Every structure is written in C-alpha cells, then in structure tokens.
Amino acid sequence: MLKFNKETYLKNAKLTYETRDIIEKVADEISDEGYKNIFFISVGGSIAIMWPIQEILKQITDIPVYSEQAAEVVLTGHKQLSKDSIVIMASKSGDTKETLEAAKWCNKNGYRVVSLVGTPGAPLESLSKWAIPNKALNGVEFEYMQLFMLIFKLLANRNEFPNYEKFATQLEGLPKNLLEAKQKFDPIADEIAEKYHDEPYNIWVGDGEMWGEVYLFSMCILEEMQWVRTKSVSSSEFFHGTLELVEKGVPVFLVKGEGYRRKIDDRVERFCRQYTDKLVVIDTKDYELKGIDDEFRWILAPTISTALLVDRLARHYEKHTGHDLDIRRYYRQFDY
Amino acid sequence: MLKFNKETYLKNAKLTYETRDIIEKVADEISDEGYKNIFFISVGGSIAIMWPIQEILKQITDIPVYSEQAAEVVLTGHKQLSKDSIVIMASKSGDTKETLEAAKWCNKNGYRVVSLVGTPGAPLESLSKWAIPNKALNGVEFEYMQLFMLIFKLLANRNEFPNYEKFATQLEGLPKNLLEAKQKFDPIADEIAEKYHDEPYNIWVGDGEMWGEVYLFSMCILEEMQWVRTKSVSSSEFFHGTLELVEKGVPVFLVKGEGYRRKIDDRVERFCRQYTDKLVVIDTKDYELKGIDDEFRWILAPTISTALLVDRLARHYEKHTGHDLDIRRYYRQFDY
C-alpha cells in the first residue's frame, strides 16, 4: 500500500493496546473519586473524534456528556462544568495552544483533567491529573481505541456497559481487521482520488457517530492538508439546505455508519443516486471485523472510516494532487 | 428598501410582542409543573436559531440544555430526555416533516412539548402541550423574540435572570432598532451582493451565540435559496483547517458577536485582513439598540445579524443573481 508500513502499523497497534492496563486503572480511579458529568474539551481533529463518542453515549449512559471548544470554554465557562466534572482532552503534539490554555484554566479552577497525550513529556501531561500516553506514531483509530477503553470502562463501573470485558478483549483484534480494510480499500482510494482530487467543490455527508469523521476528514485533511474546498453537513441537515446544490457533476461523499441513524444515510444515498452522477459511498459495512461481535460494530464504525479516509484516501489524494500532506500555508508556521 | 414594507414589518413586530402574555403564562405553567432539563428539538433554520440560545444558556443557568436534530432523536432516543424534560420545538409552516414526527414521538413517550407554530391550526399545534402562535408573516428576529421571552421568563422564575422584567419591556423597542439597522445596512448589502453574488466558493465564519446565524444564512439562504456554494465554520475551528483555504481572491464573511467569544472573532478578522482581499465583516456593534441596556446586547446580537442577513442581504443576492428566493429544485417539491 502507498506510503504504508505494515510492521509499523502493527507495532503501533501493540503499543496502543498495551496501555489498556493504564487506562483501566485511570478509569477505576476516576470511578472511585466519583463525577457528575463528562466534558470533552479539545480542538480540531481531537474534538472531532470525541463527538462520535458523545453521540454513542447519549444512547447508553445516564451521565450527562458535553463537548466544548477549548478556545471558547475558557472565555465563557459553562455552568455544568465544576469540580465534580471529568474533563477529557487529547492532543497528538501535546502542545496545541488552545488545548493547553484550556488545561491550565481547568487546573486553576480545580477541574480534573484526564488526557491522551501523543508526545511524552509534552506540556499537556503535567497539566493533567491523569495522562494516558498515546504511543502510536499515527493512526486516529488508535486514539479511538484508547478513548473507547477509557469511556466504556467508566461505564462498566456504573453497570452501563456490561460487556466491557468482552469488548476490550476483542479490541485487540481490531487493528488487524483495519489493516485488511485498508488493503481492500487502497485501490478504491486510488480511483476516488484520481477521479475527484481536482474538483472545485465537494460535499461530505454523514451523521451521528459518523459526523465527527466527516467533519475531520473534510476539514483537517482535505482543507488543511490538501487545500481542497469542501462543505460538510450531517445527513439529517443535508435535507435542509445543502441538497439544493446537488446536481449532475457535483461530487457527494457519503460516509455511512451502522447505528440507528443509518436510516437517514440511506435517505441521502437514495436522493443522491438520482441527482448526481458523482456519488461516492464509504460504507463501513463493507468491511469485516473478524473476531468482534456484531453488537459492537456501530461503536467501531468510526474506526473503520478513519482507517480508510484519514490514512488511505488522504495518501492517494496526496499522490494525485502532488500536494504533500505536511505542507501548510499558515497553521503552526508562525503566530497569528 | 428593496422588497421591504415598513408597515408590515412594524405590524409583525406588534403581533409578536402581543404574544408576551401568552408566552409568560406558558413559562409560568412550565415552571409550576417543574422540569429537569430543556431540549431544543427541530431542524434546519428552526434549530439553528435555538443554538445561540443554548450557547447563551451555558453561561447563565444551572438547568442542563440539549439540542437534538428531530430526524435523529426519534431513531436514537436520548438518555437525558424524559417526562421530566421540556421539549422546545419550532416550525414556521407547522408541518415540517421531521419536526412533526419528533412531536408525535414525544407525545407517545409522554415528553412535554412547547412549540412556536407559524401557521394557525397546523399539525404541530395539536401535538404540543403548549403552542405559542408565531403570528409574524416572516422575520427570524420575531422568532428569536418569542424564544427569548419563553426562555428568560423560565430563568427568571428560577432567579437566574433577575432583570427579566426590564429585558422583556425593552424588547418591545427592538424591532424599531432593527428597522433602522436594516436601513443602514441596505446599501451595504447591495454592495456586498453585487460584488460577491457570483463567487464560486464562500467561507462564512462566526462563533458561539453567532454560530447558528452563520450556519443558517449560509445553508438555509445561500445554499437552499440561492444555490451558492458555502463553507461555514466556527471562529474557533476556523484555525484548525479552513484557514488554509484563505488566500487572495477567496471571500470570507465574518459575523462578529458581542459576547465573550468576540475575542476569537477578532483573531479571525486579524488573520483574514492579512491574507485575503475579500473579507466582509458583519459586526452587530455597528448598529445601535436605543432604549435597550448594554447588558442585553450580547443576547440580542443574533437578532441584529438575522435582520441584516436573512432579510436584507438575501434580498440583494436575489436581485443580483436573478434567482428568486422561493425557487427550489427539490425541497418540498416532491417526496424523496
């Protein structure tokens, strides 16, 4: 596969899964201390992968869950955020400006922070009551795995996720499945990127636990790393404005999930099949998860799409646009 | 002013303000019955104007506030939504498919619905425990006024909005101010529309209590009614992807509010002034609210922007594109 090292990937998977003990210990400590609600606070791609979890949690826990932009919450506060809250943060670099400021602000106010930190010794680590090392070099799926273990262990401790032990054990086999998904998708990614890399405008659609994926790929990859123009919209909201822009020649990318909201994705698909000749459907159902129970598939669906998109499709866009994924005009290039 | 009737506008204002007694009675009844949390449930433009209120409420009430897409919540449910919740809905037509289904679903589950219904006798009315007539023919600002009276009277009853009486009394003078704002903005709207109506791609930015405004205008007006391609992004998230698309020749429309997050809008403005020659700033601070205390301005800012954008700027786009605002390809044209 293009720019992909299988051994590195499986090593990253191992390094991630090895943090299970640390994560469960953190979850147990948080459970012992008690908490009234959960706040996800981060920015960009890091908050985007927390949204699917927030969507999932709506359906399975009595604990209120909120998500806030790091740059905003420090200015406004939030009446539900208190010393009884648990704040979950993540930063791959561990020094994302807005997230760091929010972590400092949390500390000042006595809010307990648990964070996923991608860089050992990064500033976010020392600002967190609990820091979980995110050792994998890259791969958003590995961040999902850690967040899942943290969140579902917390829920298991409240008897809201009784199959946690089975879930966490089966999770070890997820990366191998994702590797196979990548292999299956790689030629498809090449075709998609070849056909669409030069489009002047692209609509990306997905819903619920897949919305963060659509948001992340269109903004943090296509816009930030490829300077490709996108509009992302949830499947439900697609029908309240954006649909009017669909016509022959307009590319629509639909990311279908496996939860209850899939019904709305189906409606988007039916509509777009009729009105554009450039519909691309990324359906996680097309990819097997061997050794993993079907009951967990809707939860794991975002890990499949992220493996396909953020890794494979991004690489093939890079190949066809000739635009290195690491090149930025502005972001982290200087102060602004 | 283009396609604007001053007398009709002031009559709509009067019809709206006359519902104050009804609204306060509803708020008092809800307060007497008691409630554990508030759910905003709607779609499209109707949910978009609830988001600013949700953002405002984060800062001033201990009551948890959630917002859900009508089409989604009926499929997934929500663990915080119960008979102890108050569900707030709105529909101008009173027969929006997704909202109606959600109202039916709420009824079936025993959730109490209070709704703003724009059409007397519309199906949503009979599905609501409390229906507030939204008598104004048009004008999103009038819907805001009704929602503000409902919400802040609820808060006043909890001693969380002690200046409610002054707020509601001063609200009567809002439409006259908005009328003057429209008059001041009308030639500016003409200039903006003339210059930008044919742009192939437009970035719209705003944050917090202005985000719903940015979302609504770009999706429900420019996309739905003008078939103009947009990307809308919050001011905080602008810096995590979309900024890379800014360069000379790319139009960026920034809607600045007056709350704490204005600091982030300022950052967007500083950035864009440097990197595009097509920055348009819509700043509610440029418009007076005579007879209204400054402490209420950050709350009322979305009513100013909506008066400028949804009414004035939309009309001038229509003039320059020659595309009637009422023409749709698909929406409500047939089943899909």
TrEMBL record, chains A, B:
<dbReference type="Pfam" id="PF01380">
    <property type="entry name" value="SIS"/>
</dbReference>
<dbReference type="GO" id="GO:0004360">
    <property type="term" value="F:glutamine-fructose-6-phosphate transaminase (isomerizing) activity"/>
</dbReference>
<dbReference type="InterPro" id="IPR035488">
    <property type="entry name" value="FrlB_SIS"/>
</dbReference>
<dbReference type="InterPro" id="IPR001347">
    <property type="entry name" value="SIS_dom"/>
</dbReference>
<dbReference type="GO" id="GO:0006047">
    <property type="term" value="P:UDP-N-acetylglucosamine metabolic process"/>
</dbReference>
<feature type="domain" description="SIS">
    <location>
        <begin position="26"/>
        <end position="161"/>
    </location>
</feature>
<dbReference type="InterPro" id="IPR046348">
    <property type="entry name" value="SIS_dom_sf"/>
</dbReference>
<dbReference type="GO" id="GO:0006487">
    <property type="term" value="P:protein N-linked glycosylation"/>
</dbReference>
<protein>
    <submittedName>
        <fullName>SIS domain-containing protein</fullName>
    </submittedName>
</protein>
<dbReference type="InterPro" id="IPR024713">
    <property type="entry name" value="Fructosamine_deglycase_FrlB"/>
</dbReference>
<dbReference type="GO" id="GO:0006002">
    <property type="term" value="P:fructose 6-phosphate metabolic process"/>
</dbReference>
<dbReference type="GO" id="GO:0097367">
    <property type="term" value="F:carbohydrate derivative binding"/>
</dbReference>
